[in-house]
Amino acid sequence: MTVIKSCLFSLSQSGNLNKLAKKLGPKLGIHSFIAGTNLVELETNIYRLNNRGVAVTIDNLGEFVYYEKDASEATSRILDVIDRIYLKGLNGHISIKLTQIGLDVDDSICLNNATKIIDYADQKNIFVNIDMEDFNHIESSWNIINELTAKYSNIGTVIQAALYRAESDVKQNKNMKLRIVKGAYKESANISFQMKKEIDNNFLKLTKIHLLDGAFTSIATHDHNIIREIIYFIEENDISTSKFEFQMLYGFRTNLQDALVEKGYNVCVYMPFGKEWYGYFMRRIAERPQNINLLLKQTFNKFFTKAY
After folding, report:
1. CB within 8 A of 25, min separation 6: which ones?
2. Is 245 helix (H, G, I), strand (E, B) or coil?
3. Is pLDDT of 22 > 70?
4. Nearest to residue 129, comparing CAs of 220, 205, 13, 68?
5. Domain ranges of the chain
6. Whose CA is closest to 298, among 12, 11, 29, 66?
7. How far apart are alpha carbons 234 and 220 in whole angstroms?
8. 101, exposed or middle or buried, with CB in 10 Å at 0-12, 13-18, 19+?
9. What's the CA gap between 144 and 103, in Å, rounded?
10. Which residues, in sequence order, are bridge partners of residue 152?
11. Taking a C-beta distance cutoff of 8 angstroms, is the pair 128, 94 a contact?
12. Helix 224-236 vs helix 254-262: angle between axes, to the nearest 10 degrees?
């Protein structure tokens, strides 16, 4: 990992910088990566993607939650999003982070909030994906996920290909909807692959394993070479398009999204929204430092437009 990446990942975990960034958000060009800071903006952008034939999974952003009150407020905001999806008939579902709803407060509080969300979504026939976070939260996350899946079927989770344990997790959860990602957290060499090629190879391996198991697979990558290899594998093994989707982040590779839709594949966009965007934003920049160029370009364009 480069020094720049390491530095950006560290900055993403700063609560103080999170507070400062909220004030500077518009100047930082966040709308290239964030689908709005309120429900009205979110709904507008969902309609725009749905009209292109693209589904969405919505992440109500929020980190640095260490108090029960904050976890309860985050839960209420997520329930509001579920209402909006249902009432407006949007082609979308929910992605949640357990730390946002109390995992760093108390496991029982987190489980209670997660149950509220998943039960409410289940009543409205809406799927909930539980995002997997940094390694220190994985075991406690799985404990809660296992309790929830014993009662509900509208649940899936995320497997991070960068982690050594990922293959075991895929095989142990072969009947669950899984989103396969490369991994957005800085982890040590003791628990995680460090080289891009190693992570890419494991990503392909895990995706193929889960596709063959027959459960639904969300293939989360922007890499057209990986997508090409997976399409070849899917065709070679006669895997139905109803069993998978290609998933990308909001604001990335829209032309590739449209090309996949044109070919008849399901495409879903991960749509982060809300005022608590800082940690997510910094990790996207850290994952792909070339995005700094886009950020600077947008910032200077806005500056010169106002100045001249």
Report:
1. 37, 277
2. strand
3. no
4. 220
5. 34-276
6. 29
7. 15
8. buried
9. 9
10. none
11. yes
12. 20
Contact call for residues 26 and 299 (beta carbons, < 8 A): no
Which residues 6+ apart lie within 8 Å of 208 measured at CB? 230, 233
Q: Taking a C-beta distance cutoff of 8 angstroms, is the pair 132, 151 a contact? A: no
Residues with catalytic annotation? 131, 179
CB atoms closer than 10 angstroms to residue 16: 8
- Which of 27-36, 105-114, 175-184, 211-220 shows the lowest mean pLDDT across its residues? 27-36
- What is the tens place of the pLDDT at every residue in 172-208? 999 999 999 998 788 899 999 999 999 999 999 999 9
144 neighbors 114 (Cβ within 8 angstroms): yes
Q: Which amino acid is at 226?
A: I
Q: How does DSSP assign 136-196, residue by residue?
A: GGHHHHHHHHHHHHTT-SSEEEEEETTBTTHHHHHHHTTTSEEEEE---S---TTTB--SH
CA pair distance 131, 264, nearest whole angstrom: 27
**What pLDDT sits at residue 285?**
64
Residue 16, pLDDT above cutoff 60: no
Q: How far is CA 44 from the centre of its chain?
A: 20
Exposure string over 244-267, b if 16+ CB within 10 A, otherwise e: bbbbbbbbbbeebbeebeeeebbb
**pTM for this predicted structure:** 0.84
d(CA 164, CA 141): 17
Residue 260 has pLDDT above 80, yes or no: yes
Q: Among 3.30.420.40, 3.20.20.220, 3.40.50.720, 2.30.30.240, what is the CATH number of 34-276?
A: 3.20.20.220
92 has pLDDT over 90: yes
